[in-house]
Amino acid sequence: MLAQASPWYVHALQRTTANPAEPLSVPARMEWTTRPGSGPGAEILGPDLHRKRLLELGCGPGHNAAHLATRYGAQVTGVDLAGLQVRRARSHYGRLNNLTFVAGHALHYLQASDEHFDAIYSVFGAIGLVAPELLLPAIAQHLKPGCALTFSVPHPQRGGLRPNTDDRPRRDYVTLPDRTRLPIARWDFDAARWEKHLDRASLWLTSAQEFHDARHGLWPTTLLITARKL
Ligand SMILES: C[S@@+](CC[C@H](N)C(=O)[O-])C[C@H]1O[C@@H](n2cnc3c(N)ncnc32)[C@H](O)[C@@H]1O
């Protein structure tokens, strides 16, 4: 039965079984990479986030959204495909102001929304897991002009992999808390291919940074991209 469920559902289910969903204190910084405490924080989303409307695509348990709502006073919406993750996020941070968690597919959420955001972001979330030719134009439609899209994805050369040589997704795996792996499709692009797709959606790539994590060997683990709506 579980083998037919979404890998993200099984992931959320195992997390919920392993760790109680209880109120948590708000993290002191925003994390974009696999190595907590390294890399930039929330400042790369924009110079002044106070009262700004932010959207996170694939928010998981909501740590980054909680940080942005509390430390910056931003109005944050976190969307996640897995209803159980949204429940977790609400148990952890539902008491906070300026923070809304919604269950749904990132693309469907954008298609149904008429809101415009000051920044949209994803941390190993929906970007890279949904066809970029659909998701990036939908994101662009909901960003105010000049505003930022920022996302981190697993680096396409992690563990010695080669980046995609075409625009199709390839097989990747979600590693579950019990260490089993379930297959998913991932658009595993390098910065140049992301730039091409961003460009088609009228989003201008402003930076691409890679990060390492000594626990994962010599290869980079994280690709962090920033772009701006033209
Ligand atoms: C690796 S987790 C990262 C969670 C969180 N951003 C973090 O850094 O802890 C990926 C998350 O993306 C969510 N996700 C996957 N596909 C999605 C989609 N199409 N729309 C929205 N969320 C999605 C999954 O349910 C999962 O919670």
UniProtKB/TrEMBL annotation:
Pfam families: Methyltransf_25. It is an enzyme of class 2 (transferase). GO terms for molecular function: methyltransferase activity. One of its GO terms (biological process) is methylation. Keywords: Methyltransferase, S-adenosyl-L-methionine, Transferase. Its EC number is 2.1.-.-. CDD domains: AdoMet_MTases. This is Class I SAM-dependent methyltransferase.
